[in-house]
Amino acid sequence: MKRALDPFLPVLGVIGLIALWYLAVWNQIVDPVLLPSPTDTFHAMYKGMAGGRLGHDFVMTVERTVVSTLIAAAIAIPLGIFLGASERLYRSLEFVIDFFRSTPASAMFPLFLVLFGVGNETKISVAAFGAALVILFNVAYGVMNARKTRLLAAKVMGASRLRVLTDVMLLESLPQTFVGLRNGVSLALVIVVVAEMFIGSTDGLGQRVFEAQQLFNMPDMYAAIFAAGALGYGLNLLFQLIERTFVHWSGK
Amino acid sequence: MPDGALLMPTGGVPIGAPLAASTAAPHVTVRGLTKRFGKTSIYERFDLDIPRGKLVSVFGPNGCGKSTLINIIAGLIPPDAGEILFDGKPLRAIKFGYVFQNYREALFPWLRSVNNIEYPLKLMKIPKVERRARVEKLVAHLGVKIDLNRYPYEMSGGQQQLISIMRALVVEPEILFLDEPFSALDYEMTLFMREQLQRLFIETGTTTVLVSHDLEEAVYLADRILLLSRGPAQIADYARFEAPRPRTDATLSDSAFVAMKAHCLEVFQREVRKG
Q1: B165 assigned to some structural domain
Q2: Does residue B271 lie in a domain region?
Q3: I want to staple B26 with a disulfide (CB 3.0 to 4.6 A). Which of A213, B15, B49, B142 is the partner?
Q4: Contact A149 B106 (CB under 8 A)
Q5: What is the reported pTM?
Q6: Is residue B215 within a helix (H) or strand (E), and if so which, with residue range?
Q7: Residue B100 in contact with partner chain A when CB distance is under 8 A
Q8: How many domains does chain B have?
């Protein structure tokens, strides 16, 4: 009998959180100016998303995140394959890649501001820079960790070096490439939102959160935070879905 | 020693009255093979003949280089010195099949089983229609009853190894190499696969080299049992086992089989003690 409730378990946490939130608002545990009620927040979210400014900002952030991830993937995937195919080349660049991968991308804002000015290009290029290093690292490792037996099997059947690369190495690296893409898109979103807050922005979710906070419009601020959360969660889910469709053998 | 077993001098070239099977020229000749890994010498001026249309089992102590031998013959590892010829031709001029121990890592999980089997034909630029026809012919020939539209990871270990074997056979190889093909399978599946391999060998008569770590299996399947010594490996014995095929469970209790197995075990133990 108990097991029948299992599919609803994930919902329990959500209900619990909202219940706690209502309790805190009704009993005025937190200053009502700082914590609006869930009703006000969701109302603000609905109003904003249905034709309001929040919807526009949401679309802008999606656009920047997607464009920067695409740019990152277009550069990092071929480069990762190239570096991964020659392990000695990768080893000689490993420190440089790891160093910049470990450098907080937000520390690069001022540099990119000087390079690209205060427009859209800066936000997209910093995010692409951060995501590209994560994707590059994963793709290169995916290629380098291709099962030796599988490469030998192709070779023993008479595959040329190019065929081994296209028929085996590329497909072998796909599961790891998707790990890189998922981490890359998450990082790109983080960077885009931060960039939207601070670099002379006029739109985007980061700007929405920041502006609502400046105007002390708490329902709007919470609504924008939730929208950003939903976006991050959605992007992750989307990539998992694509992965399950295209890399059906992953983990088997 | 059973009548069928004839001791060969190290060097592999048979001496004395050749039996009917060895009147034909050997299929594969290995001459002066030398291979070292670092300072360890695995093969030092090693000679071997592999007879045509026979199944040769390779057996020996751990680390003596059983797998290394077929890997070198099949071109997976380059030798340091020596010459390996197939009817006088180099490896690149012939068609051969190779079956790995680790079928899970040897098959391509992104391809359906039928596409896995077709892959070597694709490398040979054979058109799709003909590829399908050749796979179907092979399936009919072997009497395989597996859904080949499934992916390898949806199959049992034995089925996956059968797919690997079919992938090796689809090119109609002149010679088939198997590197401990059944050692990752459970006992029941091993027995079943032994029978499959024997049937396949009876039907195609392809020269086959089987590396095995199971003496019963090595003798049961073989026409010749190549017993290797510890490194640098020499031929400790190259025994003949000529029990009629198809061999069955009855073969296992047959006196010739028991005697051959005892003989091989004795040679093996002698070599292990030397180490």
Answers
A1: yes
A2: no
A3: B49
A4: yes
A5: 0.81
A6: helix B215-221
A7: yes
A8: 1
